[in-house]
Amino acid sequence: MHSLNQEIKAFSRNNLRKQCTRVTTLTGKKIIETWKDARIHVVEEVEPSSGGSCGYVQDLSLDLHVGVIKPWLLLGSQDAAHDLDTLKKYKNVLNLLNKQK
């Protein structure tokens, strides 16, 4: 079994996979960032303009995941809070909401 110290000493950048990152700037411009020779290289991505593009990636899918932190404490998005089918899965929360009305 190797020690952490041995693994750190044996580390080589050559063993890392080459990566590139697609970035959408606040202005909507799309660029590709890659690392080469310890320097970042930026290339503007050429794609046909679709018209009113946003400076961010829109995610229109619902986030209905709910995490149970404690039996009385749930963590979820506003999508889950507005979805009755999701709320019905958590009976205590629905009972609490009915008492407040």
UniProtKB/TrEMBL annotation:
Domain of life (superkingdom): Eukaryota
GO cellular component term of the entry, any: cytoplasm
A GO MF term: JUN kinase phosphatase activity
Designated name of the protein: Dual specificity protein phosphatase 19 isoform X2
Gene: DUSP19
